[in-house]
Specification:
By secondary structure, the chain is an all-beta fold. It has a single domain, classed as Methylamine Dehydrogenase, Chain H (7 Propeller). 0% of the residues lie in helices and 41% in strands. The protein has no helices and 34 strands. The strands form ten sheets. The protein has a four-stranded antiparallel beta sheet with strand order 8-9-10-11, with no helix packed on it. Strands 12-13-14-15 form a four-stranded antiparallel beta sheet, with no helix packed on it. Strands 19-20-21-22 form a four-stranded antiparallel beta sheet, with no helix packed on it. The chain is globular, with a radius of gyration of 19 Å.
């Protein structure tokens, strides 16, 4: 079940009460960030990119405190997701189901320490995995079998060889890096993407590759500086797609990457999923939702192996959709509720070329941080209802009542 397993990674900015850094910014939202003397100016544009240019828009600029580069990986910026873990309140940030019954999930607790859980009952009940004490919050996950999974996060990589029961921490070569996405085309070959502080701005993109199942990692040769990256999918050991502030395609397993433009332009993309080595779709939230709740998410697709990309029309009211998964040619996208209702679910039956909102499938979650489908009709959604982490299973297009998640994720008052 390792094909079409998109990474579960996030795009919302969060603050940590335990660090001096007050703005933890990643440009995986549609924010334009520029450095200024004595601080950082954030200009938020409320229009959508079209034909490579930005239309006229109302822009508000705010100056905040200067950015301080973390000294080491233990103080790596924490880049969290809507519906994900946050200071004082934990949650699962990523999930991967390798069968209709077996699922693994990772995230963070109230202290933003990494947690993991596994289920053999389609998410109906969970057991807590054992992780290294103090492991940072985990943001993304990919399993290549019922036993082997790789999780990545804030300066961290963790691997399990027993289905999520025990996790071993692994080091990465790039310091101060928050990894937001991971995809393993096989039990050996993995690619991870993320962000790290850079000389040209608060964040720059990061790419890592592994040829031994996530035990060790190296940095591939990149011809130019990268914008922030938030998701990667490798449907084969050769072909990989990474998205974020740009679209990167590799046809040699991640050794080299080529930047691909979008015909007509697009906004920042948050997740990518490939139904095959030729068909992929990527999606990202639209900040115009702040003024227009009926706005649509950004989405693009390719049907020629990433050589060309074209915009996809998303249904109205999907602007806060940012999580994505595909099982074969059937894809699901979800995210945050925009109208005080449960999170919207968009469905595609043609690999992401066209979408519609499925009102019968709405999970009883206010926010969906990730989902995983073991088949075209069996999916598990994870996220939060109110302030309570929860999971929801969907079988044959019908969402079940929510299930609670393991106790460590529900840590309160910053307790481990």
């Amino acid at each position: 079940m390792n094909e079409q397993k998109p990474t579960r990674n996030r795009s919302r900015i969060a603050t940590s009460q335990h660090r001096n850094v007050k703005l933890l910014l990643v440009a995986l939202t549609s924010l334009l960030v520029v450095g200024v003397a004595g601080g950082i100016a954030i200009a938020t544009s409320h229009s959508r990119l079209a034909r490579g240019q930005r239309d006229a828009a109302t822009t508000t600029t705010t100056t905040i405190a200067p950015w301080n580069v973390p000294a080491n990986e233990t103080s790596t910026p924490v880049v969290l997701a809507p519906g994900g873990a946050a200071g004082g309140s934990g949650n699962y940030n990523a999930v991967d189901c390798v069968s209709t019954s077996e699922c693994v999930a990772v995230g963070g607790n109230g202290s933003l320490h990494g947690v993991a859980g596994y289920s053999t009952s389609s998410g109906g009940s969970w057991s807590s995995g054992t992780v290294v004490p103090g492991l940072p919050d985990l943001e993304a996950l990919n399993c290549t079998s019922a036993n082997d999974c790789v999780a990545v996060g804030a300066g961290a990589v963790a691997v399990t060889r027993d289905g999520g029961s025990n996790w071993i921490a692994r080091s990465i070569p790039s310091s101060n890096t928050t990894l937001l996405g991971v995809s393993c085309a096989s039990s050996e070959h993995c690619v991870s993407v993320g962000v790290s502080p850079g000389a040209t701005g608060p964040y720059q993109g990061q790419l890592l590759v592994s040829s031994n199942g996530g035990n060790t990692w190296s940095v591939p040769t990149i011809s130019a500086s990268l914008g922030p990256l938030g998701s990667v999918d490798c449907p084969s050991s050769i072909f990989c797609v990474a998205v974020g502030a740009s679209i990167l395609v590799s046809n040699n397993g991640g050794a080299t990457w080529t930047n691909r433009p979008v015909n007509g332009g697009t906004g920042v993309l948050r997740f990518v999923s490939c139904a095959s080595s030729s068909t992929c779709v990527a999606i990202g939230p639209n900040p115009a939702v702040a003024q227009d709740p009926s706005a649509s998410a950004f989405a693009v697709e390719t049907s020629d192996g990433g050589a060309s990309w074209n915009p996809v029309v998303m249904p109205p009211g999907t602007a806060d959709v940012y999580a994505l998964t595909c099982a074969g040619t059937r894809c699901y996208a979800s995210g945050e509720s925009t109208a005080g209702d449960s999170a919207v679910v968009a469905v595609s039956g043609d690999g992401g070329a066209s979408w519609s909102v499925d009102s019968t499938l709405k999970p009883s979650l206010d926010e969906v941080s990730a989902m995983s489908c073991s088949s075209a009709t069996d999916c598990l959604f994870i996220g939060r209802t109110g302030k309570s982490p929860s999971t929801v299973a969907s079988t044959n297009g019908t969402a079940s009542p929510g299930y609670p998640v393991p106790a460590p994720v529900r840590a309160r008052d910053g307790a481990q």
